[in-house]
Amino acid sequence: MKLCKFTDSDYQAVIEALENRSGMDLFTHDETVRNILQDVKERGDAALLEYTQRFDRYELSVEQLRVTPDEIRLAYDGVTEEELAALKEAAERIRRFHERQRQESWRYEEEGITLGQMVRPLATAGIYVPGGKASYPSSVLMNAIPAKVAGVDRVVMCSPFPDGQTRPHVLVAADIAGVTEIYKVGGAQAVAAMAFGTGTLPRVDKIVGPGNIFVALAKRLVFGVVDIDMIAGPSEILIVADHSANPAYVAADMLSQAEHDEEAVPILVTPEEELAREVMVELEKQKNALSRQSIMEASLSTQCRLLVTESLEEAVDLANRLAPEHLELALEDPEHWVEKINNAGAVFLGHYTPEAVGDYLAGPNHVLPTSGTARFSSPLGVYDFVKRTSLISYSRAALEKCSKTVTLLAEMEDLGAHANSVKIRIAGGENKS
């Protein structure tokens, strides 16, 4: 970890490096992923089975690719009553929040013109759920529930089953969330199958969900064939703290991100140097009492930054500049300062709102823009699973009134057929149909 004060000579260089942080290196494995995509596109299920055996050490037949109702029922036996209640409570809160994001179609009229917008759900959505280092039932809920709230009829989930492990919590979460089909396939090959379709696995309209570098690169390469949510980089948290912050709380929340991945980025920004130094002590103390120490140590040693600013105003400005995935305002008056926040995936206000409640239970989506992309993008939501279609209707009188302007604009662009499509209606009298 590195503590850097605004008076240090390398202060601005440290900030610029954070500002220009990138996500995954999406070019290192480009050729490998392209080959997998092409292979699945051409050979379908046969390629899926071969890659599943090679990468997940799991030999399947075509008939075994899809999770059966019996397998889902058995999964409930691997979940305790308390765990099931927790999953259902989280699902209900997530659903309740996302129901407020529903969009309605609309129209308005003016002088013989009717204009509007139709909002329609996608027909099919594909959800990717990681299955390598850990099991992520929360990821299932966060990706599937907005799709169902949006009205998506067919929600397809792909997730690897390494060595045939069933991961009951993931299957139960999918059942609770309303996933309609689950397939035992992961990696770039799963993305290819959802993008192009195979004999068994259907083509989808949009692919969402996090994954490793191979999944991220595959999503980027199939964009345009299907839609995607985003290219997610390493998890990150930025905490803006003042004199009222508890260093133990701040350190705990920084470690909650550091344990995700060796490349996770925990940042503290504060005008209080003493607080920053107390947080450094707490990071070491708490880390040694937790599991996943090697992952946290890697994140802290290479990615963690504690920045001491000249003022709280500068700290908030820096937060906007870095546009973090998770932003905590560990401040005496967070409501005052949140009005000054423009760039963040999610904002957590006050000393009793740890980022973890947003990951699991609060309701807002935990699929958030990373690597500074909160400057221009938003959390996953219901709006990601709908499409908008424009409606335009003109009466003859309305067309006649605007005909001169339309033809003039068309002729400016030397598009005579466009102009003629208006002129022929005005010159030809009423429709004869």
Kindly describe this structure:
The protein is an alpha/beta fold. The chain folds into three domains: 2-23 and 233-363, Rossmann fold (3-Layer(aba) Sandwich); 30-102 and 124-228, Nitrogenase molybdenum iron protein domain (Rossmann fold); 396-427, no CATH class. The protein is 45% helix and 16% strand. The protein is built from 17 helices and 14 strands. The protein has a six-stranded parallel sheet with strand order 1-11-10-9-12-13, with helices on both faces. Helix 14 (334-338) links the parallel strand 12 (326-330) and strand 13 (346-349). The longest helix is centred in the first third of the chain and has 19 residues, at 81-99. The mean pLDDT is 95.
Can you summarize this structure?
This protein is an alpha/beta fold.
The total count of helices amounts to: 17
The structural domain count equals 3
Helix content: 40-55%
Largest sheet: 6 strands, parallel
* CATH homologous superfamily placement of the largest domain: Nitrogenase molybdenum iron protein domain
Rg, Cα atoms, Å: 26 Å
| CATH architecture term of the largest domain | 3-Layer(aba) Sandwich
CATH fold-level label of the largest domain: Rossmann fold
| Category from helices, strands and their pairing | alpha/beta
Mean pLDDT: 95
The proportion of strand residues reads 15-25%
User: Could you name the CATH class of the largest domain?
Assistant: Alpha Beta
Q: Tally of extended strands?
A: 14
Between the first and last Cα atoms, what is the distance in angstroms? 76 Å
Low-confidence stretches: none
Strand order, largest beta sheet: 1-11-10-9-12-13
Oligomer: single chain
